[in-house]
């Protein structure tokens, strides 16, 4: 098995769910955080760097607005704004070292320049002994701009930070073959060496009012992280024993085995962090060219363009029968590409052939190709 443990870890991303931060709906409670804080302190004592991805801003801010039952989106954002400072200061009180608040949106992570800037900030903070505390910037996100859940966010952060391990602390011991909060006979899976369709079918949503995404988003996160070579755990953050087991090199929950041949950084970012802003439909020769060593795509191979995208945005390359060939970075806007694809007789239009519609060094081949 390819899984590594405690002694092999230099950098760990620890994700803590809302239920642990604000369990009762009355603001933050440090009570459940002591064992987690002790674990972080132990990691640092042994020279391991820790990045904390902490949920809980909405749950922590709820009581400020008299615990409304069905808060509107605007009210949720206000709760996040109020709860974020309470959440970070609760963590801060547990440590005698400095922490650094990092608030991100998907809009930041999917932009390659900003992604590298986020990585630099995390790495520099760690080098200076400062622990980053990351959350989604819930007060500014819109549907198109948000990651939406901190499981996926923690995997993106773990990849950006080049972590060795991602540990997702939840209110449950790990992944069961069915939701144990509904089925008494559910059985825990200790090791998952491949996230197959069968495994995905086991995952259900969240039952609690505080959690977002349930097991499904944790599996998506595990898929992202293991593809980067990061050993991934789902563990019960309510049990102090969880953390003593991790320090002893034991598995306290479910461990996901990392890929033997992890994806190279830029391709991982393209595949697992970006979202396609549009589609380029190509003919058969285009599909072949994108997949061969040259990885070129010329305007003669363009059939259609869907969606609105700008230069530098991620696009899906698809065949005319809908197969996803690759994900790439557009060298031209959707506006210009649509104009080109509308020129049915290129020789009559004086519009020259464009040789490189997508960046040739940045192409992630997709499974359906
Ligand atoms: N197959 C499963 N195994 C374990 N938990 C599951 C499963 N399917 C659904 N769940 C639910 O996922 C919940 C954990 O997700 P969530 O509430 O989002 O936690 P967190 O706030 O830690 O992210 C569990 O409490 C459980 O109700
Ligand atoms: N960004 C949100 C957390 C979203 C989320 O994924 O929550 P959880 O499922 O508890 O990890 C917040 O701080 O409230």
TrEMBL record:
Pathway in which the depicted protein is active: Amino-acid biosynthesis; L-proline biosynthesis; L-glutamate 5-semialdehyde from L-glutamate: step 1/2
A GO cellular-component term linked to this record: cytosol
UniProt: substrate binding residues: 55, 138, 150
Pfam families reported in the protein's UniProt record: AA_kinase, PUA
Signal sequence, start to end: none
Keywords on record: Amino-acid biosynthesis, ATP-binding, Cytoplasm, Kinase, Nucleotide-binding, Proline biosynthesis, Transferase
Organism: Psychrosphaera haliotis
EC number: 2.7.2.11
UniProt protein name: Glutamate 5-kinase
Function: Catalyzes the transfer of a phosphate group to glutamate to form L-glutamate 5-phosphate.
Domain PUA: 278-340
């Amino acid at each position: 098995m390819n899984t590594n443990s405690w002694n092999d870890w230099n950098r760990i991303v620890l994700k803590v769910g809302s239920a642990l931060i604000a369990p009762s709906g009355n603001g933050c409670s440090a009570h459940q955080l002591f064992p987690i804080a002790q674990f972080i302190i132990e990691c640092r004592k042994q020279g391991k760097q820790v990045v904390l991805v902490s949920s809980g801003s909405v749950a922590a801010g709820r009581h400020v607005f008299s615990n409304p039952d069905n808060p509107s989106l605007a009210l949720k954002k206000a709760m996040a704004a109020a709860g974020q400072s309470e959440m970070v200061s609760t963590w801060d009180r547990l440590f005698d070292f400095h922490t650094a608040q990092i608030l991100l949106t998907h809009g930041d992570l999917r932009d390659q320049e900003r992604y590298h800037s986020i990585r630099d900030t995390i790495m520099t903070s760690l080098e200076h002994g400062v622990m980053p505390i990351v959350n989604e910037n819930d007060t500014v996100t819109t549907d198109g701009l948000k990651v939406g859940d901190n499981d996926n966010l923690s995997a993106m952060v773990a990849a950006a930070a080049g972590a060795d391990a991602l540990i997702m602390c939840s209110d449950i011991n790990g992944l069961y073959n069915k939701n144990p909060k509904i089925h008494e006979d559910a059985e825990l899976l200790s090791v998952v060496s491949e996230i197959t369709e069968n495994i995905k079918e086991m995952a259900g949503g969240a039952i609690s009012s505080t959690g977002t995404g349930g097991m499904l988003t944790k599996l998506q996160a595990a898929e992202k992280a293991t593809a980067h070579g990061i050993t991934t755990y789902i563990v019960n953050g309510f049990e102090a024993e969880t953390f003593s087991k991790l320090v002893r090199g034991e598995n306290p929950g479910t461990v996901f085995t990392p890929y033997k041949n992890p994806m190279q950084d830029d391709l991982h970012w393209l595949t697992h962090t970006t979202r396609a802003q549009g589609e380029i439909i190509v003919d058969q020769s285009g599909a072949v060219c994108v997949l061969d060593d040259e990885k070129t795509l010329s305007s003669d191979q363009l059939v259609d363009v869907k969606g609105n995208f700008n230069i530098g945005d991620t696009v899906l390359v698809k065949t005319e029968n809908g197969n996803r060939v690759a994900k790439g970075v557009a060298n031209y806007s959707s506006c210009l590409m649509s104009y080109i694809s509308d020129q049915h007789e290129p020789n009559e239009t004086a519009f020259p052939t464009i040789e490189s519609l997508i960046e040739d060094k940045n192409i992630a081949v997709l499974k359906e190709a």
